[in-house]
Structures
1.
Amino acid sequence: MKILIVDDFSTMRRIIKNLLRDLGFNNTSEADDGNTALPMLQSGDFDFLVTDWNMPGMEGIDLLKAVRADEKLANLPVLLVTAEAKKEQIVEAAQAGVNGYVVKPFNAATLKEKIEKIFERIEAAQ
Amino acid sequence: MVFSESILSDRCLEQARGLVSSIEGGNEEKAIDYLREISRINETEIFQELGRLTRELHDTLVGFGIETDISKLAENDIPDARERLSHVINVTDQAAHKTLTAVEEAIPVCEELENSASKIEIQWKRFISRDLSADEFRELSREIGGHLDISSDRYTKIKSYLNEILMAQDFQDITGQIIRRVIGLVQDVEDKLVGLIKLSGSLDGEEQKVERKPIEKALEGPQVPGKEAATALKSQDEVDDLLSSLGF
C-alpha cells in the first residue's frame, strides 16, 4: 500500500508518517501542497491520499476536486486531516467526495479508526 | 502656531505689571493669580489650535476611510490577535508538559530494564567462563525468566510514551497556523500605519490615495477557545455525526 501524505507543515507530515508506520504502512511519500502532490499522484501508483486542507499553493479541497476530476485517480481514497472545523467546510468536502475527515488536533486512535473504516468500505464495495 | 491675541496686548501688559508689583509688594497670593492668568492666555490658544488640528485630522481620516479601519483593528483585530497568541502559549505549554511527563515516566521503565539486563549480563559472563555454581545458575535462570516476563510489557509501555511524545509535536502545526494569521494582522497594521504616514504628508496639501488591503480570512484555521466560528464543530464526534447524517 503506497500512501501520499500532503501537509505544508513538515512536523505534521512526520507525525502522520510515524502513525501510519505504526499501523503497518511503511511505503509513504510526502508533498507540501496540492501543486506538488497532484503530479506525484498522476505519475505514481498511490493507493491512498492523506491531505491537509489549508496550504499555500493548492489547498487540500482543490487537490481533492482535482483527484476526483482525474479519470485515473477518481477512485483514490482520500482522507482530509485538517484544523478546518466549520460545518460548511465539512459539507463541502463531503460533496467533493472525501472518504474521511479528521479534525486537528487528533489522536492516534482516531486516525487509525478512520483509515480502517475507509478500507472496510472499499472492501465491502468490491 | 498663530495666536489670535498678541502677547504685546494691553491686557498682557497690565497683568505683567500687576505681577511685578505683587512680587515687589511681597503679595504671594496675588502674584500667583497674575501668573496663572498670564499662562491661561497661552493655554487657551494651544487648546484651540489642538482642537482645530484634531478636527482636521479626524475629517481627513474619515474621508480616507482609515478611521473605521483603524478602530476596527484596535477594537477587534488586536484583542483577537492577543487571544490567539495566548492560546499559542497554552498549546505549547501543554505540548511541553505532555512531552516532559512522557519522558519522566519512560526513564524509570528504561532504568528498570537496564538494571535487570546488566545484572543478568554479569552473571552470564561468569557462566560463559564456567565460573558459576549450580545454585548461582538456578538463580540466573530465574532472573532471565523474570527479565523476559517484564520485557514485553515494559517495551510496550516505552513505545506508548514515545507515541505520546510524537503526538505532542502536533502543536507546531496548530500554533504555526495561528501565528501565520497574526503575522497577517501585523502586516495589516503596518499597511495602515504607512497609510497614516502618507496621509500626514497629504494633510499639508498634497492629496494621496491610500491603498486599502483587506485581511484575507477565507479559511478559519485552528479554532481558538472563546473565538470559535459560529458554525465550527467542537469535536471529532460532531464531525462524525455530521458526516453520517450526509450518508457517510
2.
Amino acid sequence: MAAATDDAGDSNEMIRVVSSDGEHFEMPEAAANLSLVLRHMIEDDCADAAGIPLAVVAAKPLAKIVDYCTKHAAKSSGLTIEEAEELKRFDAEFIEVDTDMLYDLLVAADFMGVEGLSKLAVQRTADLIKGKTPEQNRETFGIVNDFTPEEEEEICKENEWAFQITKPPSRLC
Amino acid sequence: MSFRSVIQEVKGEIGAISRRSFRSRPHRPGRVRRVAAAVEPDEALLRQSCCWTQLPPELLREVLARVEESEGRWPRRRDVVACAGVCRSWRGIVREIVRAPEASGKLTFPISLKQNKSPRWHEHLQCWCLNFHGRVTVASVKNFQLVASDESGSTNQEHEDVILQFGKVGKDMFTMDYRYPISAFQAFAISLSSFDTKIACE
C-alpha cells in the first residue's frame, strides 16, 4: 500500500479506482480529490497500483463520475466567464440521463462525497418531479403506490382542487 | 456462458439487490437483462422498478426539499402536494419538510386551510351559528370562516385563528376579512370561488 505515497499533492499523479464489478478506471489526482472518500483514501496512502476499490459503485456510473471529476478538476480555479459557462453547459448535458443512471449517480455521488455532482443529481431529480401528478411521478420513478384505498381516497379528496385546473380528476392519484 | 448460468447469475443478482441498498450491475448489463426479461418478466420488472423505492431517506429528503423550496406560490406549489401523494415514504418526508402556514408564509396542503370553525347548532334559534364578531349580518350558506390548522387537526376550536372570513351583509353585498399568511388576492380568489362551490355545504 505504498506505491503512491511520495507526494499526495502532486496533481499529475494518476489515481486508479475499481468498480464493484471489477472494472479499472484512472483519473488525475486532482480529479480524485473532488471525492471526499477518495481524498481521504489518498491522504491515508491507500491509493496503490491495484486501485481503490469502490464496493458499491458499478462501472457504468463510475465511468460517468470519473468524467465529471476529470472535467471539473481541469477547470477548478480562476475560471473566465466563458469557461464557467462552458462548465455549466457540460453539467447540463452530463446530467441528461435516464432515471436508472440518475439513480446510480445520485447514490454513488453521495457515497463518494462528490459535492458538486450530488447537487447536480439532486436538482435534476427535483426538476423531473416538478409538473407531474402523483401517478406520473410513480410511473417515472417506478414507485409502487402503497396507500390503502381509504388513504388514497382521502388524499384525492383533500387535493382535488389543487389539480383541477389542468388535470381531470381521474389523474389525481 | 451457458443459458442456465446466465439465469443463475441474474437470479443471484436479484437476490443481491434486495440485500443491498445500492444496485450493482452485471458485467454485460444489456445481454443479461434481455435474457432476464425473456425468462422472468416479473423479476425483470421488479428489478427495473425497485431502485427509486430504495433511495436512502436522507437523499429523498434532499430531493423533496429542493422541490419544496423552489416554488412558494400556487399553482406551481402543487408540485409539493403531488409529492405528498406518491407513496407513504414521500408523504412522510414532505409533511416533515412543509411547515405550517403561519411559520412559512406559504400555503401548501389544501387541508391546511379548512372551513372549520364549524358552526354550532343554536338550540334556541334552531339554526347553525358561527361567530363573525358583527361583521356578517345576514344568514347565508355562503358565509364561511377559514382557519389555519396544524397537521394534527386542532381540537380546541376556540383557540384557532380565523385567517379568512366571508359573509353576507345585504343583498349582493358581502364582507371579507383576511390576515397573514393569506394575501388580499388569495382572499379575494377564495371568496369568489365560494360563489361557485359553496364551501360551507361541502
